[in-house]
Specification:
The chain folds into two domains: 34 residues, no CATH class; 208 residues, Glycerol-3-phosphate (1)-acyltransferase, CATH 3.40.1130.10. It is built from eight helices and nine strands. It has a seven-stranded mixed β-sheet. Strands 1-2 form a two-stranded antiparallel ribbon. The termini are far apart.
């Protein structure tokens, strides 16, 4: 009987060197859901945040730059790199995160916990301090919100996909209020961002395939000032993000 390890703990395998995926996932979720003094594995100082961002950005640009061009529109609307803010974007493709690192801002993004188990990509996400979320677990949802508020308090921007999942047909879905509640509680602006073209290059359900279809455009909208009204911020962000999308996708 062979064994695999996760965080120094032994996980029973199947006799051929493969860990039981259900037990592995259970151990990982238990570890990532545990109460810790901070949501990131390394001390979050300005210098460590810049270093983590450098690694993420270099990887993202090398991974995408050779396959498709990225056009950034509205760069003047970006807050300063060291300013805490909640970034929100539409979600069409597995390529969205890679593309958003072209913004040049050291944000931490929210991703479902199972993504942290993806070899290399998921491990990098964990080591560079991004935030896990189990969408079906209320305790995980509350911890995610608390972690994001802590990150903003430490000066780190955070990025949400307020639709909660990737669109299956490119149409903009309904927004969930979590990102905007975080912005209200932290007293920070919301920066809406529209992604155009990622869904055509790698549609939801076609991960690993890259279709030809031109480049990707990232549109940064003017920040929505801090507010005490999460619902109003959500409505304003959705209207801004929908604007540049083709009419059929504005839903």
């Amino acid at each position: 009987m062979r064994w695999s390890t996760l965080f120094g703990e032994r996980i029973r395998g199947d006799g051929r060197g493969r860990a039981d995926s259900r037990e592995l996932g259970s151990r990982f979720r238990a570890r990532t859901a545990a109460d810790t003094p901070a949501p990131f594995p390394l001390p979050l100082t300005p210098s460590s945040r810049r270093a983590q961002h450098f690694v993420n950005t270099l990887w993202a640009k090398v991974s995408t730059g050779i396959f498709y061009p990225v056009t950034l529109v509205g760069a003047a609307n970006l807050p300063p790199a060291g300013a805490p803010a909640v970034y929100v974007a539409n979600h069409q493709s597995f390529l969205d995160i890679y593309t958003l690192f072209w913004l040049g801002r050291p944000f931490k993004f929210i991703s479902k916990t199972s993504n942290f188990l993806i070899p290399v990509v998921g491990w990098s996400m964990f080591l560079t301090g991004h935030v896990g979320l189990n969408r079906t677990d209320r305790r995980s949802q509350l911890k995610c919100l608390a972690d994001c508020i802590a990150l903003l308090g430490a000066g780190a921007p955070v990025l949400f996909f307020p639709e909660g999942t990737r669109s299956r047909d490119g149409a903009l879905g309904e927004f969930k209020k979590g990102a905007f509640s975080v912005a209200v509680k932290a007293g920070v602006p919301v920066v809406p961002v529209t992604l155009i073209g990622t869904g055509a290059l790698m549609p939801n359900g076609a991960e690993g395939r890259l279709y030809s279809g031109g480049g990707v455009t990232v549109v940064v909208h003017p920040p929505i000032p801090p507010s005490t009204d999460a619902a109003a911020m959500m409505a304003a962000a959705r209207e801004a993000i929908a604007g540049p999308l083709p009419a059929a996708y504005r839903a």
